[in-house]
User: Fold these one by one.
Assistant:
Number 1:
Amino acid sequence: DAKTTQPPSMDCAEGRAANLPCNHSTISGNEYVYWYRQIHSQGPQYIIHGLKNNETNEMASLIITEDRKSSTLILPHATLRDTAVYYCIVRVFSSASKIIFGSGTRLSIRP
Amino acid sequence: SAVISQKPSRDICQRGTSLTIQCQVDSQVTMMFWYRQQPGQSLTLIATANQGSEATYESGFVIDKFPISRPNLTFSTLTVSNMSPEDSSIYLCSVADENYGYTFGSGTRLTVV
């Protein structure tokens, strides 16, 4: 079973920040938090990952709570192209570590 | 990150037949993973394919239905055998990339009629 819990759907106004929460209360010390998104049945796309520090890249920011039991993905200026299903995943940083997907959050961006 | 070429991108097949999906990676990778995504659902892991050994199947998936080959470190195939309409799904392959977690192919959209 997936080790994360996400709201099934959210919406956000275009141009505003989209904040997507994820609970991972059973995360282990060596597990990273990864975020992916899937746009209209394409292959999932990597967004960002982190262990315990906050991370930022050109796509998004990842905020991980100090106890690591939850995290938030932030899309700073959402556009219509950010409409997708967003998956929060925890996994060990290893090429042999399989990914188990939860149900994700369907994010809708409204004009 | 690795680049994956997956073929075919889509197919419509008759029930009772089989379809083989190919996944080619532009670099050598140890592990390859096959997923199924049924309509409106999340991705479900079918099996893990390690070069030189038999694939490891997840609960609910069996080798007779989904045989997998992994002849070298850049290539794998998944066959969907004796298809029924319930097999209509998107099938995706992926590889583990130490920097990005996983990289996914673009998927094969299978419709069984």
Number 2:
Amino acid sequence: DAGVIQSPRHEVTEMGQEVTLRCKPISGHNSLFWYRQTMMRGLELLIYFNNNVPIDDSGMPEDRFSAKMPNASFSTLKIQPSEPRDSAVYFCASTWSSGGASEQYFGPGTRLTVT
Amino acid sequence: DAKTTQPNSMESNEEEPVHLPCNHSTISGTDYIHWYRQLPSQGPEYVIHGLTSNVNNRMASLAIAEDRKSSTLILHRATLRDAAVYYCILRDIAGNQFYFGTGTSLTVIP
């Protein structure tokens, strides 16, 4: 299996622009997680889906952030408009079960820089 | 929310065992204890998890205290490739996840 695939790997954009990050989970996995990592705040869970349905989005920082999972093999995280403080590495992870015993598989991350 | 507490950093000599502690005093009876590690410039990687009993796998061992308020990740022979940030996190039985925290940065000395 190719693992969790994220694109793009690097994104540089100007403040105010729309940014879309993409994630393809491992085939057969039914839960998907979006994280953000910064030096100041560490690794934060933004939102997670189970069977394509958002379960907990309490970590989404504000209305500028939105996430969708239109089908089991694709998810997007959108930031509109982007701000410099959104600069971070964004990780997507998937797992085969929504239960607490399942391990998560992380993608390589997207490094976002907003100037 | 149940959270975990870990030392910020630890050092180990190469080929010696490493014991990485984690405190989770507010853990509930159905919370699983998970450990992940993150190598430089990579995404986190699953290491091991457990509920009540000690667990072993090819990467490490997990020792869980009898009262479950703490756990220890054991790397039996540290190698340079084990230098990473190690995170201890809790997940409840429904899969709801708590915080990664700051983790423990492990330095392996040749």
